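**Backbone shape codes:**
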Amino acid sequence: MAAVVRGVGYRLSIPRYLAAKALGRRLPTLYYGRLSNVGVITLPRRPLPGPDWVRLVPILAGICGSDLGTITGRNSPALSPLVSFPAVLGHEVVARVVEAGPQAGVAAGQRVVVNPFLPCQVRGLEPCPTCQRGETCMCENFDQGAFAPGMLLGFCRDLPGAWSEEFLAHRSQLFPAPAGLSDDRLVLVEPLAIALHAVLREPPGEGARVLVVGAGPIGLATIAALRLLELPVHVTVVAKYPLQEELARRFGADRVYRWRRGEAPAFRAAREVTGARILKPVLGRAVVSGGFDVTYDCVGSRASLDDALRVTRPGGRVVVAGAAGQIPQLDWTFVWSKGLRVVGSVGYELEQVGGRQVHTIQLAMELLEGRPDLPLEAMITHRFPLERYREALALSLGPQRREAVKVVFTGPAREDGAFGRP
């Protein structure tokens, strides 16, 4: 077996970070080219850290918005104490076990979906109060224990992520894959679990009028989650591109609105779906009287949050599922003037569903098994071998991104070819 393992990762150089942040929109190769922080990382092949660990080879690994936020410098530096570089990226993955410790609970050859978070149990610590509650994605010790700081695989120097030839995971992170689910559906379990958790944090009541802002992977997964949970609600979606609109309808959206000249789609949706009145203030954007019962913001930008706060009815709820960071000039007037409940959601955890306790990732697989007709795998629009990572990132970040929803890497990197070059 090879003595080294290669992966595509991020090495933090402040000058390159600042160049990408300042000029990357005009020169996108600063995000992923030879002058970027992204490149091939070669690491020694480590033994299993303990008897309850496994070695995994990726089958499919997705590109997530948080990966792109790191690469482009758009993520807030607030979480920088909870990451460590250089780090091999990638945390959305279906993988195959190639080596298992005697207490790992799985066997070589099994397919698994991986919970990428690195809480107390993974770090060899006694559970913190948050982990004791089962909310391990909000662990208080992501910077403590046996490994370098890192909230999840892909952002920890000591535990490489899934954009690699192989990686390690703890028994507690593993969910054996049902035989009836394809690799395509399994690689989407992680983003689906994020959406399921967001919906279950603030489930809409019967007959509620729900708005999903954004139809990227998390927005589409939120539509799927609402339908998989069979919640009797009306779902409206604000989408940016034609492909997103098409997929939103396939996943069960009742109405989809896209930008056109004139009225913003969220305002038009509020007026047409809920009967809200659109009022014009002395200065600034329109004010909405009425609106949606529950809004899931699946983008996390200033524009999406501003829309969400404006078009949610008085006493309604706004769930922030998108990875919002620093938001300048966001008008919070509507939070207090409408008495809105604004709730953040991260990751997945133990859920109470149907009178039982089940982890969100396990629930996602069960729901997908029961609904083979819901074409979640249609989100995968492009596949690349890992050695073509620059093409994959160019597609995800460039003008062609309107034709891409979920881009995935296929299998472990080859031993030859372009992947071996920095």
Q: What stands out?
A: The chain has a mean pLDDT of 92.
